[in-house]
Amino acid sequence: MEILQNEREKLANFYVELLELDNLDSLELKVNLTREQINDWGKGLAVLALAPIEFNWELAFERLLAVAKACQKWQTGPQQPTAKNIEDLESLEAHQRKELVNSLIRVDGQNNQWAKTLGISTELLDFLSINTFRPALKTFSQHILTKLPAGEWEQAHCPVCGDQPTMSKLSGKEGLRKLYCSRCETEWRYKRIGCPYCKSDDVPSMYYLTLEDNKQYRVYLCDHCKSYLKTVDERVCGEVDLFCEDLATEELDQVAREEGYRRGDMRQQV
């Protein structure tokens, strides 16, 4: 228990440092969608898959480097960057830096190749990329969804970045389900019954666990793909921040793992 508390403190300090970075820089993302691209979005293609995103790649790389150093400093993440990893990042030439951040902003980027080039795991590179772009993508998401019929999105993946959901919540009197993407902090409506990871609608293979002393939490389990999805019932506890809830519910991850399930987004809790 003491080890878990220590890891939580490190993670908290890591995110506090990132908040300070957010106050220093302001990475802005821009995109211009044609009518045809908006139609393609309606067919299930996420915004980042439709058109190139314009942004200051130099500022993005500076933030990536700062995130990597913070990760090393607080010894958090799926793997801690070494001094050599930081040096390898700093030694990249300008065109490599640009290629790297342009790859990392996309869910379908060449991350496996870049991980090999930098000598780090794909899990660590994913962790760094998410924390590099999350603030800018959150602002971008809030803006771009005002220009799209967001209520019509019925896909299981994020309408903005295309990533898989990290958590979900039940809200409103009817307990409507909303999925949550931790990469850009987008929330979107999704059908109440069905696994968002394997798309199975086989009700007998799905059920959920609850905690006696925390009835606002549910862990939905899918026997078809052996994935789980942490869910918060806002009808019980009121409105919540799902980013914070994910960090605060490691016990739920542990319970699901002990039952033989894995996170549907394939990431570690960090």
Describe the secondary structure blueprint for this structure:
Blueprint (H helix, E strand, L loop, with lengths): L1 H23 L10 H8 L14 H18 L8 H8 L3 H11 L6 H8 L3 H23 L22 E5 L4 E5 L6 E3 L16 E6 L2 E9 L4 E7 H4 L4 H7 L1 H9 L3 E2 L7
Helix pairs in contact: 1-3, 3-4, 3-5, 3-7, 6-7
Using brief descriptors, characterize the structure shown:
270 residues, alpha/beta, seven-stranded mixed sheet, 7 strands, 14% strand, globular, ferric iron binding, FdhE_C, cytoplasm
Outline of the structure:
The protein is of the alpha/beta class. The protein has 10 helices and 7 strands.
Characterize the structure shown:
The structure is a single chain. 44% of the residues lie in helices and 14% in strands. By secondary structure, the protein is an alpha/beta fold. Strands 1, 2, 3, 4, 5, 6 and 7 form a 7-stranded mixed sheet that branches. A hairpin with a 4-residue loop joins strand 5 and strand 6 (227-233). Helix 3 (57-74) crosses helix 5 (94-104) and helix 6 packs across helix 7. The chain is globular, with a radius of gyration of 19 Å. The relative contact order is 0.11. The model has no long low-confidence stretch (mean pLDDT 92). This is Formate dehydrogenase accessory protein FdhE. It holds the Pfam family FdhE_C. GO terms for molecular function: ferric iron binding.
Largest sheet: 7 strands, mixed
How many distinct helices? 10
Helix content: 40-55%
Order of helices and strands: HHHHHHHEEEEEEHHHE
Rg: 19 Å
Number of strands: 7
Mean pLDDT: 92
Fraction in beta strands: 5-15%
